[in-house]
Amino acid sequence: MSRFTDEHKGMFAATVAYIIFGFSYLFSKMALEITEPLILLLARFSTTFLVLNLLVLTGICKIRLQDKKLLYPVFVGILQPCLYFIFENYGLSYTTTSFTGMISAISPILTAILGALLLKEVPNWKQWLSIVISICGVLMVSLGGSGGKNTVIGCFCLILAYFIGSFYSLMIRRCSETFTPFELTYVMFTVGFVFFAVLTFSTYRGETLPMLTAALTEWKFILSVLYLGIGASVGAYFLANYSIARLPVARATIFNNLSTVVSVTAGVVLMGDPFTWVSAAAFVLIMCGIVGVNKFK
After folding, report:
1. Rounded distance, CA 78 to CA 59, Å?
2. Could you give phi then psi for residue 153, rounded to 5 degrees?
3. Which of 107, 113, 115, 171 could form a disulfide with 249 if both were Cys (CB 3.0 to 4.6 A apart)?
4. What is the per-residue DSSP string for 68-119?
5. How far is residue 58's CA from residue 224's CA, in Å, rounded to a whole number?
6. Where are the chain's structural domains?
């Protein structure tokens, strides 16, 4: 019987994390039908901050930040969630769904390139081929998306968001030598909570609390905030940070494409979206790429 190694744990954590991320698109869409993006982000990260502190105060999770250099994890928090969410939200507002999917496909290969240059974690040719195969699957899904108009600012914001996301993965890899996955998650979302609280109250001023209160009267908004704030921010980001700490970044982040499979499947099952042979073929390519990157090590 094979032993469940740290490598296996990292792969399992990445799988669960990106399944959770895949459903987050559905819950974000539900919440944004009710309120503005900044109100959702304030509610989400307030919930995350509250839950993280409850985990610490009850002794379920422990943090030891004394005598550790907090500059790096704080910088990680500025990258993700602060800058990443801002640029991604603006990008989503000014581009089509299909274009967003195509741009998101560059994230794994960009992370692999940066990992090779900065961390000296160079994938072999079979892993590079597997990354390309998985990206082709994402592109097939994206090309079947809705039409619309893409703007220069939207394209720029999305490219910058996914570059930030790739650099975040590298920083997590470096920080994991000193900080535990939970400590990194705690610092990240403490920074995110403070940032989005200041930004939201500065933007809407006296209207912030009435807007938030109005949104909280809708059960769909409450459900979305609980899923995004606890499931995605606490659970999925902890698992993603855990996987990056135990796997080369190229192998950990290729699981990002799994979220495409989950989000499309959720749309088909829960929202009645069409499912075609192109979608099926794309899913096969994505999964073959993910398996290949982790098999041909």
Report:
1. 27
2. -65, -40
3. 115
4. S-THHHHHHHIIIIIIHHHHHHHHHHTS-HHHHHHHHTHHHHHHHHHIIIII
5. 25
6. 6-295
Tokens 């987050």 belong to 24
Q: Which two tokens stand for residue 116?
A: 């090779």
pLDDT, tens only, 115-173: 777 777 777 778 788 878 877 877 776 665 555 565 678 778 888 888 898 889 888 98
Reading the block at residue 44, the tokens are: 């989400």
Task: Identify the sign of the CA torsion 189, 193, 196, 198.
Answer: negative
Tokens matching residue 122: 């160079």
103-112: per-residue pLDDT in tens? 666 677 777 7
Taking CA atoms, 270 is separated from 86, 137, 274, 278, in Å, by: 28, 22, 11, 20
Contact assessment for residue 163 and residue 83, using Cβ atoms and an 8 Å cutoff: no
Report the alpha-carbon distance of residue 293 to residue 286 in Å, rounded: 11
Q: What angle do CA 164, 169, 175 make, to 5 degrees?
A: 120
In the chain, the amino acid numbered 44 is R
Single pTM value for the model: 0.84
Query: CA-based diameter of the chain, in Å?
Result: 62
- What is the rounded CA–CA span in Å between residue 90 and residue 202? 18
**Which DSSP letter does residue 206 get?**
G
CA distance 264 to 267: 5
